[in-house]
Structures are given as structure tokens and as C-alpha cells.
Amino acid sequence: MKEPVLPLPDDVALVLQGGGALGSFQAGAYEALREKAIDVNWIAGISIGAVNAALIAGNPPEKRLSALRDFWNLVTGGLPDITIFPSDMMKQWAHFMSAGAVASTGAPGFFRPHMLPAAFAPPGSNEAISFYDTSPLRKTLDEMVDWDLLNNGPIRVSIGAVDVETGNFAYFDTQAKDGRTEIDARHIMASGALPPGFPPVEIDGRHYWDGGLVSNTPLAYVLEHQERRDMLVFQIDLFPARGTMPRSINDVWSREKDIRYSSRTRQVTDQYLRLRKEHDVIRRLLKKLPAKMRDDKDAQRLQDIVEEGAVSIVQLIYKLQDWESGARDFEFSRSTMRDHWQQGQDAVAATIRKGDILARNIRDGKTASFDLGD
Fold first, then answer.
1. What sign results for the dihedral spanned by CA atoms 113, 119, 121, 122?
2. Are strands 368-370 and 311-317 parallel, antiparallel or unpaired?
3. CB within 8 A of 304, min separation 6: which ones?
4. What pLDDT, on the 0 to 100 scale, is given for residue 372?
5. Taking the alpha carbons of 364, 367, 368, 369 in that order, is the dihedral positive or negative?
6. What is the rounded CA–CA span in Å between residue 13 and residue 55?
7. What is the pTM of this model?
8. By C-alpha distance, which of 55, 51, 57, 44 is closest to 22?
């Protein structure tokens, strides 16, 4: 194992959002991190991020990349791999055609249309409350993931979903102090059960939908459950917050989706950084108190609340292509998957090129957020 390109703190977390077909960007970023000898010991995922988390944590180190490649080659295998003349107009045409084909027929090893139309299905059945059957994903996950390794291996896994009836966020965590979960295919599928396309998944009498309905990023969960150790977090943002003014209805569709899914990411990051600054002030004040006051029960409790490790949050942000639309999260074509994968690798490379800034922050034990992409 070569030396990592960055000084790594005790904990290195990978935060994976939902984004359907854009998940291959996450796979490319993970491959680049591995090449830089940056190993993670905690992965938190929602939706397609949960799938990638299972593929990584549910395989030994030497098989993780091959598991990711096998999955992404499988789910993009339903469309011909045609090299398109390199123009945005032709790429956009292929993009819409591919998305339409997936909407009509599904994605291999992932989902397929129900055989029984919703209008004729019994009320309450999966056919009545969703458009697609996700049982192929269960088979794929069971074949590609070692669940015993995922639950008892070196990587902590945290998966977010939403309780359909209460609307509450739920996390399934293999190392949670307040009650660990033995994760299997159901938990991964629950995290990605985006309505009305996919049916809810039942787990222990409760039904769950996609965690992205509440928050598309599991960053808040990771930060709230951080141990008192320094942490480096790589957050992979599949929906960029910044964009241009729309010029067509397709642009509106795309921009609306970016804003909707990126808003919680910005909010969580900003709120957390503000909270950390407040904690710094409190810690400085507590040090100034006379010894008798520092020993006070309330002062001790306050000290316990603000005692925490530093966090460096690295944003790896997907950059929308001119030819992509709001359909990009269900456009499972092989050529687009390869493009997303390469972009994930490029995003890590761009960050590492400016890694001296990040390395200095890690060594100094400070809390900060970084977007070092070109």
C-alpha cells in the first residue's frame, strides 16, 4: 500500500447522495481515492449512494472496484454502446432516447415495469402504488455483496430512509452506539425506493421510501455521530447548487432538480460550520472561568457538549454537461455512465492538485469546508 497523498486523520468518511444514474460519478471518485491511497472507514449513503456503499463495504479491498464496475456495467447493459458524433445536439438526442428507453423498459439488474397496470392492481399492492418492480435489485445485491463482511467488517455503513407513515428519517447503521442494524438488501432498497417509481420496502413491520425525500445528503447524520476524533469527509454532490439561468423548458427541469436536491446539502454544511464556530467561542470562554466555576455541574455539562474533533469537509461536485437534462438521473446508458465515472476521477484529481491547502488544515486540526475543483 503506497503512502496516501494527504495526512489522514483517525476517521475518513465518504458521504454519498442519491442521484440514480449519476451514481457512477461516485464510483469514479472512489476509484480515484483508492489510487491516491485514501482509504475510508465510514460510508454513509442514500438511494444510489446506499447501493454504492454496499458494493464497497460488502467486498474485500481487492474486489471493491470490480464490484462497482460489474454493477454499473450490468445496469447500463440494456442499451447499445454507440459512439455518438461529439456534438452537444447529438449527445442530447441520444440522452433523451436513452432516458425514454429506460423509462419504458427499466434497467437490467435494477428495476423493470410491473406486468400488471396500476389501474387493475389490488389496492395497496406494489403494482397499485408504484410503476416499477425492484426485485431485480435484490437479486443483484445478494449476488454482489457479502452481507456478513458489510456488517462486521472494517467500514462503518450508515443508510438513510424515510418511514412512509410517520415521515420520519430513519438510519440503519452497522456501528451505531444506540443500536446497530444488521443491514441486508432490504435496507439498501428502502433507501432508494423513490416514489412513485419504486414501491416502499417493508422492514420489521414498517414501510420505507427513499431517504432523499427528507434530505438527499447523509452529511448531517455523519457530523452528529462523529466520535471525538478528527475526521476527513469527502462529500460527493451529484446536483450542483450553482447554475445558469434557464433558456428552455428542459433547462428549467434540470435546474429545478439541482436546486431541490442540493439545497439541504448547502444548509447542513453551513449550519454545521456556524455551530462549530460557536463551540469554539464556548470552549475559549470555559477556559477563562475560575477553577471553582469550571467544576460546576452545568459548566462540566457544557464542556462535554462542545468537546469534539475537527472536521475537514471536501466537496466533490458533479458538473452538469450542456447536453444533459432533468432526465439524467434515470439515463442509464453505457456511454454516459463512462462519462460520469471519468468525471468522478477528474474531480478527485482536481482536489488533490490543490491538496496542500487541505493538508495544512488537517495538520492544524481545524474545521473547514473545501471546494477545490477546477
1. positive
2. parallel
3. none
4. 83
5. positive
6. 16
7. 0.93
8. 51
